[in-house]
Each structure stands twice: as C-alpha cells, then as structure tokens.
Design a protein that fits this description.
heterodimer; A: mainly beta; 4-stranded antiparallel beta sheet; 50% strand; B: 6-stranded mixed beta sheet; 0% helix
C-alpha cells in the first residue's frame, strides 16, 4: 500500500529534551516536506527537500532540523524543544512532475512540550 | 509571497443539502494549481479535488465541484447532497507551478453536517 508513515503518532516531552519524528514514504517521491498545524493558522511549512541531500527552509524553520540521507526518509529533529513547538505535525511527499504533484500526507504526530 | 484566505472559520449544513466553502488567494503567477483537502476527526489529510489554473473548466469529483474564477482569484468548493461523513476541516491550498512543490494553505473551514 502506497503511504507516508510517521512515528510516533503521539509524544509528550519536556523542554530541552531532544527528539526525532520519523517520516518514511514508499512511493519513490522526490519531494518531501514537514508542516505544523496550529488552530487558526492552517498548515505552515517547516522544511522541505527536493531530493536526497537537498533541503531548504520553509516558513517556520526556527528550532527544527531535518536531513535527507535516503530518498524514502525525512526525519524532523527538535534539538531543544520548547512549549511553543507544541503542535500537530505532518510529513508529506509528492512527485515533481506536472499533473502528479499533489502532496500525500502522513497521519500526523501530536507533540506536546511541557 | 502567495497567500490563501478562507474567510469562514466554521460552517454548518443540513444533511442532503448543498454548501459552498470560500477560498481566495493572492498571486502574480499565471500558471498554478489549487487544491481542497479534507481533514476529518482522524486528522488524516485527504485530497478532495484539484484544479490547474490553465484549465477553464471547473473540476468535479462526484459530489464535490469547484467554482474557479481566475480573474477574481477565487476557488470555492461546493459539496452537494451533504453527508454526515463530510463533517471535517477543509483546507484550500495553492501551489505555484509544477517544478515548485511549495504548497500554501488557508487557515481552514470547519464544516459540520447536521442530521
């Protein structure tokens, strides 16, 4: 089954404790992205990657890191989480071809930073 | 920068009736893509419908159709014969063009279908 998977689905942590949210897709998509969803703000892009070893900042990159060592994986790293990073996080992937570039989303990760 | 505006934070509709969700966007581009995504209580983001800006014909997918007004930069979603399973948050999204997968989302409209 074609899908984007994220782990964990739920996470409660404390300020300053490093964490990683994993994202994996099995559709051979070139493009991957991370979003955070907050009430009244919709989805805002954190980081994106056009292909392996190519990453770039989105609209709200502060406090986050990413890596793209393999095509299928795109982990999101919070080196020192803070309460303002409490949010719902989505990973997404897509092709980079005209007519096939709608994004497929993972199931979301609910993160709470105390 | 492109912006997407959904001016209706919440809407409700009676089962079997029709409802229209509004979306406007701001861009100087001529070629771009527009999307509506549905997010039910499960939180999964589900693509409902997409529209290419170069196509004049409005996209339709079963009970879902759009009214794309390029000059007015408007992209509304019409849901016909509303069903209880349509209850969800709906997001309008804009993508500049095929080689740039940067997608911009509106703030969302929470739709409740009442029995």
């Amino acid at each position: 089954e074609a899908q984007v998977t994220q782990n964990p689905r739920y996470l409660i942590t404390v300020t300053g404790k490093k964490l990683t949210v994993t994202c994996s897709q099995n559709m051979n998509h070139e493009y991957m992205s991370w979003y955070r969803q907050d009430p009244g703000l919709g989805l805002r892009q954190i980081y994106y990657s056009m292909n392996v070893e190519v990453t770039d900042k989105g609209d709200v990159p502060e406090g986050y890191k990413v890596s793209r060592k393999e095509k299928r994986n795109f982990p999101l790293i919070l080196e020192s989480p803070s309460p303002n990073q409490t949010s719902l996080y989505f990973c997404a992937s897509s092709y980079r071809l005209a007519g096939r570039n709608e994004q497929f989303f993972g199931p979301g990760t609910r993160l709470t930073v105390l | 920068a492109q912006t997407v505006t959904q001016s209706q934070p919440e809407m409700s509709v009676q089962e079997a009736e029709t409802v229209t969700l509004s979306c406007t966007y701001d861009t100087s581009e001529n070629n771009y893509y527009l999307f509506w995504y549905k997010q039910p209580p499960s939180r999964q983001m589900i693509l409902v419908i997409r529209q290419e800006a170069y196509k004049q014909q409005n996209a339709t997918e079963n009970r879902f159709s759009v009214n794309f007004q390029k000059a007015a930069k408007s992209f509304s979603l019409k849901i016909s014969d509303s069903q209880l399973g349509d209850t969800a948050m709906y997001f309008c999204a804009f993508m500049k063009h095929a080689s740039d997968n940067d997608m911009r989302f509106g703030a969302g409209t929470r739709l409740t279908v009442k029995p």
